[in-house]
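RECORD TYPE: inverse folding
INPUT: structure tokens
STRUCTURE:
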């Protein structure tokens, strides 16, 4: 039962080219935005789209997969967990960021997408 605590699954399109960072420790981290769409009909019966944007972070081998195969517009599936962190701005304002930390990435769409 503990495997379904803080478990996220998303399928969406990459919104921008991933940013890859090689840390001094030798670890690799990838960051990118992911757009997910929900479709519904409004009160007039017209089809509507609600798009949500997520920040995805991948580490290690998963970051290498992102670096080698993930590009803007690519459809991907993500499994992972939500992680919230905080930081203080130069103006001493406290900010909070929630990200999806990816454990696995599934490359979707056709092979010619890259």
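DESIGNED SEQUENCE:
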């Amino acid at each position: 039962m503990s495997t379904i605590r803080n478990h996220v699954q998303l399928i969406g399109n990459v919104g921008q080219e991933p940013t890859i960072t090689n840390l001094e420790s030798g670890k690799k981290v990838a960051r990118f935005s992911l757009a997910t769409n929900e479709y519904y009909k409004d009160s007039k019966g017209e089809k509507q789209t609600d798009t949500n944007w997520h920040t995805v972070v991948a580490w290690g081998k998963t970051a290498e997969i992102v670096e080698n195969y993930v590009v803007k517009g690519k459809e991907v599936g993500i499994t992972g967990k939500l992680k919230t962190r905080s930081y203080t701005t130069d103006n001493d304002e406290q900010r909070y960021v929630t990200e999806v930390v990816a454990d696995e990435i599934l490359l979707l769409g056709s092979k010619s997408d890259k």
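NOTES: Residues 60-69 form the longest helix (10 residues).
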